[in-house]
Amino acid sequence: MSANSFSGERSRHASIAIAVTLVVCLTLLLKPLDFTISAFQSKLFDRDASGEIVLLSVAAGADADKTARTLNSAVRNLQENGARRIFVDASLIENGSPATNNDLLRVLRSNPQDVQAFYPSPESGDEEVDQTRIDVTRFRGLNTLNSRLNRDFLNFAWSVPAVANDGRTTLGHALADTEKKRDQVAIDVTIDPDSIPRIDLTMPLTSQWDSVRGKTAVIAGKRTADDVRLVKSGSEQAAVAHILAAETLLAKRGQSIPVGFLPLIFGLLLYGCAQFSSKRRRKVAYILLIASMGALVPITALLGVQAFFSYPMVMLGIYAALRSVSLYEQRHLLVDSITGLPNFAALRRDLRQTDETRQIGVAVIKILRLDGIFATLTLREKRHYLKMIARRLAVVDPTQKVYFDDGKYFAFLTQDAGETENKSHLTGLRAIVSQPVEVAGRLIDVAITIGGDFRFEDSGEDRLSSAISAADQAREAFRPVFLVSDFENSEDHWDHGLTSRLAEALAQDRIKIKLQPQVDLRTSQFVGAEALARWKDESGGEIPPASFIPQCERMGRLDELTKRVLERSLNSLQVLQNAGHDLPISINLSAIQLVDDRIVEIIESRIASSGIVPSKLKLEITETARIEDFAAARSVMEKLRALGISFSLDDFGVGSANLEAVQRLPFHELKIDRCFVSELRECKMSRAIVSGVLRLAESANISTVAEGIGDIETYDLLADMGCERGQGFFIARPQVLSQLVSTLDLRKGGLFHKSVG
Ligand code: C2E
Ligand code: MG
Ligand code: MG
Predict the structure, then answer these.
(1) pTM
(2) Which of 5, 251, 400, 413 makes an SS bond possible with 394, Cβ 3.0 to 4.6 Å?
């Protein structure tokens, strides 16, 4: 899927580049670039003019009659010296006295083939050419030529049409006088304008007339207003452009490639290149593409063919820029720095780009106890270890794209194959990946859990976060591969509507607590209370913690829940103290919150601002079986203990809390699970277990609490067995603070057991 999605992105970039170029084609913005390329072409080759066309210049303006007389004598001299054809700038004829002018007009009329006049005619709306300079009526009946030039906005002349807008032949085409007529000639930029023979009529002439024998002569006035820019020589008389056009025609050059042709061809080629999925082939294709364009620059110059390269160049430039931005993002923002693998931001992007109908599931692989493993490895070895795991994940399909993020999660996208197949596929994969990896000659264990989400009604983003959560909740020994659908089917509630309502409740601080008192079983005095999170949703219904706490975890907001519960508990402690009840409060903390120091900061800062003595706070750690890194958990607990906080091991004795936790972590208290307590009276085994736990606690110097005391018999039994404290509906239900204060007031000094009894 990865290869497809990237070629899709490349095609999109190619299309954008082509589209932008087409739009730019319609503007003239790229002219300066074309000029630069043409200037380069003009420097590559140097061709001389044929020498058949001679330019004679007269200064126009100054002394009008003198100019006219110079002109007349020049025409005569040219005729006498055998010039083949003579072309005269008509505006010069306007300058002289009537006699001089009529004289010349007579010559023109008597030799209409050999002597022709040319003058520009303005296009409609063109005010630059001063038509009043010429009395066109004088030339009626004569074959006159048009010397107007098409210039661009930078005053460059690029080409000369055969016929001007007014229907007259242009000077350039008439000068060439070739048999084969062409509609248009692109001025060949390689012809050197300096190689055109020139005669300056303002200088005294003697011997030069002989050099025009058999040649074509163009007599033109020098007027800076008419000057045009030429690629090879800068500013020139307009007649020079016509002479160059004629020279181009004579050399049978000057064809031009239509403006849209090169962008079209290179656009198609670019689009084709973008389709190669192999990086190497693509690279070769791009190089060939650029090289062929580069080669076309001198080739067209050599052939004298005019082509506009700016458009395809800009197109390639836009494409290159789009690709660079995308590659930069991939390299720096979407890639994990250790493994070089795409990270989860890349995964989210890919998920957004996948076709929703393709039923792509997300599998997340969590590497367990990585901190311990990495403690002994160098960076290179760490990288090797992770890369080996990534390679194994792609063992079935080498094109499989594997993602890595957050220092311990791998992920990949996989096609849904049905519930049982998905599970067996992931289970098989786990067997492959869990083989030890050899790093620097040592075999290092790989312990993983896998979470998968194949529910397509959810967004890709949701699927990723629930797959991470599933990998977190999977137990290495108990259930290493955990699909979110398992979660849905299990007794844990997985209500999707709940997620957004819960987020809202957290944001609006609508999570409250109830406090359930604990008593000393020997004295029956209240000695503490447990804070239990309570959430009443908008409709007033109370949602049990067993439902919303897993959701909180899945949303990654357990710490936020703890903050709320902690703040309310600290407030309650304050209120209780003010009312003269000096009890500690226990709050529940999931063991997975002990992975780093975040929780230490949360608790420390809250306690500091509340002014409550830290020893008034106890933390009940639930789900201790999920602790992967005991060393880390211990260090977090020790930091909290240093503040004066004590720890209780909640639900002790059932699956989620075990002896290993007692052995390895600094607990002050064991909280015997309700399931043993509730069956204490009837079940011998429960009694045996509870008395075993009590003995264990006593010899380890840890105190004990029994939870879920439901009747007086159990209460007495536990007291007799030596359990120190108790909690349960028989003693008191969880209650709001004001209720607890009244309960405590009522019982103040009194003995709980006796008053109930
Ligand atoms: P837990 O910490 O073991 O809390 C005791 C649970 O047993 C409470 O359920 C309490 O209402 C219930 N209980 C107490 N006495 C009796 C009894 O005599 N009979 C019966 N049948 N139940 C009794 P609750 O409030 O529904 O809480 C369930 C669990 O949710 C808690 O078990 C705790 O693990 C978790 N929890 C509650 N608040 C928080 C919290 O703020 N953070 C975390 N991480 N977990 C919490
Ligand atoms: Mg508890
Ligand atoms: Mg409990």
Answers:
(1) 0.49
(2) 400
